[in-house]
Amino acid sequence: MTIEAAKQHHLSEIKALVESLAHYYLEDTTAPLPEWFSNTLTEQSFEDRLNNPDYQNWVYRSGNEVLGYIAMKNDGHLYHLFVAEHAQGRGIARQLWEHVCKLVPQQTYTLRSSLYAVPVYRKFGFIETDATGFKDGIGFQPMTYTVSG
Predict the structure, then answer these.
(1) pLDDT at residue 47 greater than cutoff 70
(2) Residue ranges with strand state E in the chain
(3) In a domain, 94, yes or no
């Protein structure tokens, strides 16, 4: 099991991983994803973030399988953190989070969590900073983590 910088050859696996979990954003998990959200999940969108120097993109691999993916903006905004459903509960999200925090040291980190993932982020030390938001059937919770010390 390794954490490595996401590369071009990971794009199709990253896209498949994130798409497989995208239903967790929806209030109605049987509804289709809104077009604006689907547009952020295209292989081109992932490639654009991969090639954008404002983002750090990392994958967690076991053998040849990508089990986790994280994308963080250099300003400390956690853009994506996904772990394959069959691999959740093994500490992969925490390992990716801790890895990227060393590379993007900030006093404060922000994110918009899916409602499903709020308990995970609370375990990392994030707190809710605003009311839960909804857009076109997608729920999100703004959260912030402030480094202590």
Answers:
(1) yes
(2) 2-5, 55-62, 65-73, 77-83, 108-114, 127-128, 133-135, 138-146
(3) yes
